TrEMBL record:
The lineage of its organism: Bacteria, Pseudomonadati, Pseudomonadota, Betaproteobacteria, Burkholderiales. SUPFAM superfamilies: Cytochrome c. It comes from the Bacteria. Residues 13-103 form the Cytochrome c domain. This is DUF1924 domain-containing protein. Keywords: Heme, Iron, Metal-binding. Gene3D superfamilies: Cytochrome c-like domain.
């Protein structure tokens, strides 16, 4: 998934930007970390419903980001909640670049 986002973005994902994007609020009420945790290596909780959310970092959830259709579905939904628009391929690449560094 990372390589496909990088190819469309025309640049390598940067973990430092991905972490900043993930933990920052973008003018709205939530950040990605509001539900997934500052370091998404454990089960998170939806900020409104309290529903458990599997760990997002691939080292802690081997199924994370293995299904392109599911990945796109959740990026679209969550980006709309957090940044009030769809994320760019560069933003997705940055976030994934950071998530794969979490061990």
């Amino acid at each position: 998934m990372l390589r496909s986002y990088e190819a469309v973005a025309g640049a390598a994902g940067r973990a430092d930007r991905g972490q900043a994007f993930f933990t920052r609020r973008h003018g709205g009420e939530w950040s990605c970390s509001s539900c997934h945790g500052q370091v998404p290596s454990a089960t998170g909780r939806h900020a409104v419903t309290g529903k458990p959310i599997n760990a997002l970092a691939p080292a802690f959830n081997p199924k994370a980001f293995t299904d392109p259709r599911r990945t796109e579905k959740w990026f679209k939904r969550n980006c709309n909640d957090v940044v009030q628009r769809e994320c760019t391929d560069a933003e997705k690449a940055d976030v994934l670049a950071w998530l794969i560094t979490i061990r």
